């Protein structure tokens, strides 16, 4: 079931052949009406297909066929799809290019993108123009403890001028998750960050004070 861009949930396909299944769906990055997925046949082989849920069109033939689950994921420009592959016992991330329709492969040829990896997710980190107002500094000695954290982390940093600070948490897609104002008044800050609402994964912690900022990574593992 899928709910692209809204609250309506509908089936991707009403019927599929007996002893087959569909899984690991992924939306195209620039077209929320395109979905790629694993089609697992009765023999257990997994093929990447994609469908345009607006037009109802589906790939003319498999984009790639595999003997392990593909876990497909579109590139940033939707020009290719990455997937898992077992290369003689070594897991790799493969890459196959797709046409402008995003649902058919250009020629079916795939190549190795990353070795010794699996479950690839292609993402781009959003950028903010900080050149005019903020500059990176190591003067804050920013740290996060424990790391990995479970339900709480201590964000520790130096604040020489005891000014107000802004704490921001970003996910790996560059999306701002939380933003908290920390009142000034002390030079050595230990802020208790509640991480119960954060999913497992890697986050970027950013401290901004006046015209300077510092960042560090925080891993959540529950």
Task: Note the topology.
Layout: E1 21-27, E2 34-40, E3 46-52, E4 64-66, E5 73-74, E6 80-87, E7 90-98, E8 105-115, E9 135-136, E10 143-145, E11 152-158, E12 165-170, E13 176-182, E14 188-194, E15 201-209, E16 212-220
Number of strands: 16
What is the makeup of the main sheet?
5 strands, mixed
Continuous helix count? 0
The H/E string reads: EEEEEEEEEEEEEEEE
What is the radius of gyration? 22 Å
Low-confidence stretches: 1-6
Structural class: mainly beta
Gross morphology is: elongated
Distance between the termini: 28 Å
Mean pLDDT metric: 83
Strand portion: over 45%
Widest sheet: strand order?
9-16-15-12-13
Helix content: under 10%
Structure description:
With 222 residues, the protein is an all-beta fold. Helix content is 0%, strand content 47%. It has a five-stranded mixed β-sheet with strand order 9-16-15-12-13, with no helix packed on it. It starts with 20 loop residues before the first strand and ends with a strand. The N terminus is likely disordered.
């Amino acid at each position: 079931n899928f709910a692209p861009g809204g609250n309506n949930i509908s089936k991707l396909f009403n019927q599929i052949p007996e002893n087959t299944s569909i899984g690991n769906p992924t939306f195209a990055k620039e077209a929320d009406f395109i979905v790629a997925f694993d089609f697992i046949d009765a023999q257990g082989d997994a093929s990447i297909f994609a469908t345009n849920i607006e037009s109802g069109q589906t790939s003319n033939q498999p984009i790639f066929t595999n003997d392990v689950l593909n876990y497909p994921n579109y590139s940033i420009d939707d020009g290719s799809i990455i997937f898992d592959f077992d290369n003689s016992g070594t897991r790799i991330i493969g890459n196959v290019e797709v046409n402008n329709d995003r649902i058919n492969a250009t020629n079916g040829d795939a190549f190795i993108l990353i070795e010794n990896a699996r479950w690839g997710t292609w993402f781009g980190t959003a950028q903010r123009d900080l050149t005019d107002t903020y500059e990176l500094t190591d003067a804050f000695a920013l740290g996060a403890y424990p790391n990995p954290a479970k339900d709480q982390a201590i964000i520790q940093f130096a604040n020489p001028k005891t000014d107000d600070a802004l704490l921001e948490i970003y996910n790996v897609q560059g999306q701002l998750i939380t933003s908290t104002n920390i009142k000034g008044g002390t030079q050595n800050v230990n802020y208790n960050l509640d991480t119960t609402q954060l999913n497992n994964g890697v986050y970027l912690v950013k401290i901004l004070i006046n015209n300077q900022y510092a960042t560090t990574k925080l891993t959540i593992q529950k």
